[in-house]
From TrEMBL:
GO terms for molecular function: DNA binding; excinuclease ABC activity. The gene is uvrC. PANTHER family: UVRABC SYSTEM PROTEIN C (PTHR30562:SF1), UVRC/OXIDOREDUCTASE (PTHR30562). InterPro entries: GIY-YIG_endonuc (IPR000305), GIY-YIG_endonuc_sf (IPR035901), GIY-YIG_UvrC_Cho (IPR047296), RuvA_2-like (IPR010994), UVR_dom (IPR001943), UVR_dom_sf (IPR036876), UvrABC_protein_C (IPR050066), UvrC (IPR004791). Keywords: Cytoplasm, DNA damage, DNA excision, DNA repair, Excision nuclease, SOS response. PROSITE patterns: GIY_YIG, UVR, UVRC. It is found in: Cytoplasm. This is UvrABC system protein C. Interacts with UvrB in an incision complex. Residues 201-236 form the UVR domain. It comes from the Bacteria. It comes from Candidatus Brocadia fulgida.
Length: 619
């Protein structure tokens, strides 16, 4: 059906419309209370935002639509379709993993604060969000330092048979071994909640009362510990930075527009205190500010995140009442969306606006510095191209075991994690970093040559040896128009003279390595890339090592669960102790049914039985 006929036959009902180009690709997704009025308005000449609509309509060759029962359903479907199709003219908010929260599973026996990225309706209590992992680490470090709750994760907690070092230094009360009752521990968790809510003053009141009670009961050692806790909290009470007039949870939004680029800043205010701030940057795609904010807010809260009581915005949203209804349904409580005109809330918006403007300036300065650094690298090292795309490799292993390789990619000076790759070494079984690097480079660039997917610069961690390996791969695969460098440690550190280890940069076209100043932007940039490749390799190596060393032989025996494994370890001391026990000892000391005792014994001695059978056959 021709586009004109579709426009004539649009229904008068809520729904979602998908605009497509001549190649039948979705280029814009929108929702409407009345599809007929909304879609046809794009083709009317009297629209206020005619410049934008003309730019969009020029690319529209077809329109599909999906009917919904309500406008709220259309709002939800619009967000889902934007995620699915990633249309060119929509604001596409990609922040599924931006925010971190702290979770307290208060419905479990001995909970502890966990770091999570997804908020679920599971009865737990969530605090945050925090835009940076650093803020979470500081908060948890502060909590663990002054409140003696458990530190170990569930996997360790369930298997532990004796308390860890934290118990010995009085930083934990030993709930893993039932050395503290649930009521006492619950009191500690209440104190943790007060800190996470920003109510340190209330916590100080509670602790001072406890200290007085312990002192009156002549338990001076306990009173002294509480006194130390009080002092630690009093030293950090100034953590609260912004106080609003009421203790309300709020998200405050501000924006700054620079050409076709927009920066949006979000201030997270919890219980009257600003907990964190987050920044977003994307092209407006010729949308109006109102349309950008409407789409941004809808997508922002479609993610799984904490929903405050108030959402304060710098512009009116056409979906504000609809957004209120939708958020209230998700939260289970009333939520208001406000565009303030006067008072304290206007000042909060102004603060968010200033932060957005500052984020723009910082971003532009940073982008300029990166561009200058890349140009300077080309000139300093004599590269053929400006290294707009760099691929760096590193190898990680212990005595040749669990050997892995990593490849990380930087594009225009920034990491592109979608292009990170990791390799498990398959052909090298001994300590030979050169052979391992050869395998990784061969696997990567055999495919890259086939797909014409080569970077501007390849960087390896190591000296001339690693560079020589890479050069052989270049010759074998006929790679000729790509620069290659190797980064290696030079002069050793001399702590007495205060000298740091120097870095040397090797390149095939240079007879001697280049030693840049340790504080030069170029070397700091290359160090950053090398360190990221090393981190990525180490993370994969640790994952494989953990899988190998922390898997118990008991895990493979049916019917032996966590409780029985913990009990056996407690009785026999170790896996070796269990292996040395007889079936009768397993049944009697471990208090196991005869069936399971025999199963464990035969399973742990399976290898010995196989060897004995093979020897008998040979005889």
């Amino acid at each position: 059906m021709k586009l004109t006929n579709k426009l004539k036959n649009l229904p008068d009902s809520p729904g979602v419309y998908l605009m497509k180009n001549a190649k039948h690709k979705v280029i814009y997704v929108g929702k409407a209370k009345n599809l007929r009025h909304r879609v046809r308005s794009y083709f009317q000449r009297e629209r206020d935002d005619r410049a934008y609509t003309e730019y969009l309509v020029r690319h529209v060759a077809d329109i599909d639509f999906v009917l919904t029962e309500t406008e709220k359903e259309a709002l939800i479907l619009e967000n889902n379709l934007i995620k699915q199709f990633k249309p060119r003219f929509n604001i596409n908010l990609r922040d599924d993993k931006t925010f971190i929260s702290i979770k307290l599973e208060v419905n479990t026996k001995f909970p502890y604060p966990k770091v999570v990225r997804q908020i679920e309706n599971d009865g737990a209590r969530y605090f945050g969000p925090y835009a940076s992992a650093r803020a979470v680490r500081e908060t948890l470090r502060y909590i663990h330092d002054i409140i003696p709750i458990r530190k170990c994760p569930d996997t360790v907690f369930k298997k532990r048979v004796k308390p860890c070092l934290y118990y010995q230094i009085h930083k934990c009360l030993g709930p893993c071994c039932d050395l503290v009752d649930e009521v006492t521990y619950r009191g500690l968790i209440d104190q943790v909640e007060l800190i996470l809510k920003g109510k340190q003053e209330d916590l100080l009141t509670v602790l001072k009362e406890q200290m007085l009670e312990e002192s009156k009961a002549l338990r001076y050692e306990k009173a002294a510990k509480i006194r130390d806790r009080i002092r630690a909290i009093e030293e950090t009470v100034e953590k609260q930075k912004i106080h609003s007039m009421t203790f309300v949870d709020r998200d405050v939004f501000g924006y700054y527009l620079a050409g076709n680029e927009m920066w949006i800043e979000v201030m997270f205010i919890r219980s009257g205190n600003m907990e964190d701030i987050a920044s977003y940057h994307f092209p407006t795609n010729h949308n109006t500010i109102e349309e950008v904010f409407r789409s941004f807010l809808n997508q922002f809260y479609s993610q799984t995140r904490f929903i405050p009581a108030e959402v304060i915005t710098p512009v009116e949203s056409a979906d504000s009442r609809l957004l209120e209804e939708w958020l209230a349904e998700k939260k289970g409580k009333k939520v208001v969306v406000i565009n303030p005109k006067r008072g304290d809330k206007v000042r909060l918006v102004e603060m968010a606006q200033k932060n957005a403007e500052n984020a723009c300036r910082v971003s532009q300065t940073y982008e300029g510095d990166l561009a200058r650094t890349l140009v300077s690298l080309k000139e300093t090292l004599g590269l053929r191209h400006i290294p707009e795309r760099i691929e760096c490799f590193d190898i990680s292993n212990i005595s040749g075991k669990q050997a892995v390789g990593s490849m990380i990619t930087f594009e225009k000076g920034k990491p592109n994690k979608a292009r990170y790759r990791r390799f498990r070494i398959k052909t090298v079984g001994q300590i030979d970093d050169y052979a391992m690097m050869r395998e990784v480079l061969t696997r990567r660039y055999t495919r890259a040559v086939q797909e014409d997917d080569l970077p501007n610069l390849i960087m390896v961690d190591g000296g001339k040896g690693q560079m020589g390996v890479a050069l052989k791969i270049f010759d074998e695969l006929a790679i000729g128009n790509v620069d290659l460098i190797a980064l290696a440690k030079g002069k050793k550190e001399n702590p007495i003279l205060g000298e740091k280890a120097g870095e040397q940069i090797f390149a095939p076209w240079m007879q001697d390595p280049v030693a840049l100043s340790p504080s030069s932007p170029e070397l700091l940039f290359l160090d950053k890339i090398r360190d990221e490749a090393h981190r990525f390799a180490i993370a994969y190596h640790r994952k494989l090592r953990h899988r190998e060393y922390y898997t118990s032989p008991l895990d493979e025996i049916p019917g032996i669960g966590i409780a029985r494994k913990k009990k056996l370890i407690k009785c026999f001391g170790s896996i070796e102790g269990i292996r040395n026990a007889t079936i009768e000892q397993l049944a009697e000391i471990g208090k196991l049914p005869a069936k399971y005792a025999a199963e464990i014994f035969h399973s742990l001695h399976k290898a010995e039985t196989s060897i004995a059978e093979a020897a008998n056959q040979c005889e």
